[in-house]
C-alpha cells in the first residue's frame, strides 16, 4: 500500500485509504472539473474539502502541495514509475489523468492537440475573464462607480460565448466526441448563473451554449461530481 505520509497536507486532511487518488478541492468551477473527470473515469478517489479561507488554502500544509494556494490539487499514489505524485492546476490535472487512462483525450495526435487547444481556451480565456466578470458584476467590484472594468469583462464574456456558440454549431461536444475540453469548459459557462450574469452577457439569447450546458449536466458523472467534495462537509 502506498505511503503518503511524506505529503504534509495529509496531516491537516488525514487520508483513510492511501491506495486511492486523493482530491483536495472545493466545488467551484475549477474544482468541479477534476471531480467530474474522476467520476467519468471511474477512478477510485478520496475527496477532501478544502474551504477557500486563508486558514485552509494558505496553511503551510496545503501550500506544501500547492504553492499557488488554489484548489484543486491531487495526490496520485500510483504516479509515474509507481511513485506518489502531487499535482495542482486544474487543467494540468485533467490532461494528466486523461493521458494516464487513455480516455477523453482523443484517439489520434491530431484529436489530442485539438482537445488540449480547447482546454487552454478555457484556462487562458474563459476562466480568468468570467472570474473577473463575477468580481466586477456580483461581488466587491460591483460597488465601483466607474463601470469601465465591469463593461470590459461583460464585453469579453460576450465575445468568448460567441466563440463557443460557433464551435458548437452542428455538434454536441466541442471536439466531436465528449472530452476533457467539455469538462474544463461547461462548469465555467454554468458559473454565469451563479454570477447572475446570463442576461447581461446575452447567454439566454444563444441557442447552442445553453443546450450544451444542459446536456453536460445531464450526464450522471457531471451531476454527481459538481457537488464533490460536499461543501457542507
UniProtKB/TrEMBL annotation:
Signal peptide: none annotated. Keywords: Transferase. The keyword Transport does not apply. InterPro entries: Glutathione-S-Trfase_C-like, Glutathione-S-Trfase_C_sf, Glutathione_S-Trfase, Glutathione_S-Trfase_N, GST_C, Thioredoxin-like_sf. It comes from the Bacteria. Residues 19-105 form the GST N-terminal domain. This is Glutathione S-transferase. It comes from Pelagovum pacificum.
Amino acid at each position: 500500500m502506498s505511503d503518503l505520509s511524506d505529503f504534509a497536507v495529509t496531516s491537516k486532511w488525514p487520508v483513510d485509504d492511501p491506495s486511492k487518488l486523493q482530491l483536495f478541492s472545493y466545488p467551484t468551477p475549477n474544482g468541479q472539473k477534476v471531480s467530474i473527470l474522476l467520476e467519468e473515469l471511474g477512478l477510485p478517489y478520496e475527496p477532501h474539502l478544502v474551504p477557500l479561507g486563508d486558514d485552509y488554502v494558505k496553511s503551510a500544509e496545503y501550500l506544501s502541495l500547492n504553492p499557488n494556494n488554489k484548489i484543486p490539487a491531487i495526490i496520485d499514489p500510483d504516479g509515474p514509475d509507481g511513485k506518489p505524485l502531487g499535482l495542482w492546476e486544474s487543467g494540468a490535472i485533467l490532461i494528466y489523468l486523461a493521458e494516464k487512462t487513455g480516455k477523453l483525450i482523443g484517439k489520434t495526435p491530431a484529436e489530442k492537440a485539438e482537445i488540449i487547444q480547447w482546454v487552454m481556451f478555457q484556462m487562458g480565456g474563459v476562466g480568468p475573464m468570467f472570474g473577473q466578470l463575477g468580481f466586477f458584476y456580483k461581488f466587491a467590484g460591483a460597488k465601483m462607480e466607474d463601470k469601465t472594468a465591469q463593461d470590459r469583462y461583460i464585453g469579453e464574456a460576450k465575445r468568448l460565448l460567441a466563440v463557443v456558440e460557433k464551435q458548437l454549431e452542428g455538434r454536441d461536444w466541442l471536439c466531436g466526441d465528449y472530452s476533457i475540453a467539455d469538462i474544463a469548459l461547461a462548469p465555467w459557462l454554468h458559473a454565469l448563473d451563479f454570477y447572475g450574469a446570463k442576461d447581461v452577457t446575452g447567454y439566454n439569447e444563444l441557442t447552442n451554449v445553453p443546450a450544451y450546458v444542459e446536456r453536460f449536466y445531464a450526464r450522471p458523472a457531471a451531476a454527481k461530481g459538481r457537488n464533490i467534495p460536499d461543501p457542507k462537509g
